[in-house]
Amino acid sequence: MGAKIISGKEIAKEIREELKEEVSRLKEGHGLTPGLVTILVGENPASVSYVTAKQKTAHELGFYSVQDNQPEDISEDALLELIDKYNNDEKIHGILVQLPLPRGVNEERVLNAISPDKDVDGFHPVNVGRMVIGERCFLPCTPHGILEMLIRSGVETSGAEVVVVGRSNIVGKPIANLMLQKREGGNSTVTICHTGTKDLTYHTKRADILIVAAGRPKVITADMVKEGVVVIDVGVNRIGKTPEGKAILCGDVDFDAIKEKASYITPVPGGVGPMTITMLMKNTVQAAKQFAGLD
Questions:
Q1: Measured between alpha carbons, how far is 122 from 186 in angstroms, rounded to an integer?
Q2: Is position 9 within any domain?
Q3: pLDDT tens digits, 228-257
Q4: How far apart are CA 251 and CA 238, in angstroms?
Q5: Do 208 and 163 share a domain, yes or no?
Q6: Is the pTM higher than 0.85?
Q7: Catalytic residues, which ones?
């Protein structure tokens, strides 16, 4: 029969249309324009690409957006001063520092310097703590995007056996936490697997919903999942180039084989990836509304 494809590209487009309308209402009804600054240190090609995409999306949605490029040799103290400036800028509601940062700059110290009220990436310990206990906060963008994909695709999560492969602070831990909470898109029984898991297949075969963020190409094969599983593939792996020099990408699951057993599956590319930037924009609109006392 084959799985239904959960297109992050299409869902992200739908959410962006909703955000564009909301931004228009905020401008017309309250004189409020959501503001986002992206800080890029150095010229890492991947980082430049990511930041360009974020700025492009912010412009399309009608944000006040600032791209602040800094040299690779900027001192940590100077970077902290820059963040403090934006913490106190009332036109800026969201601050994003593009990672990775150059050697010699303490990423943890830099991220912790961002005001929790402007931490639209959802990485600040205050927001992480709020998330864990179920308080309102800025949810980390990729896990937030996964929740939206499940909810908008009509996947039943309440009571489901969810297996998460990967325990990063960016994806694995937060999505596991969100899915066990008593909330829409959650209320699941969650198992986290990682490099110390002795029998990965035992766990993945039990999954009603399998979320894979392992960072290894096609680590999950068809014999490791049961019929009807819902598969969310977070991985993006470069496994070669086309004759034209374009990167060939694949996920952490064997898509072609598993799609014949799954009920729903996300593709790579076009699955989880487009959702991450979209949820960053959603968080920025939320931050602006909170700043103005509208939410």
A1: 19
A2: no
A3: 999 999 998 888 887 887 878 899 999 999
A4: 9
A5: yes
A6: yes
A7: 54, 98, 121
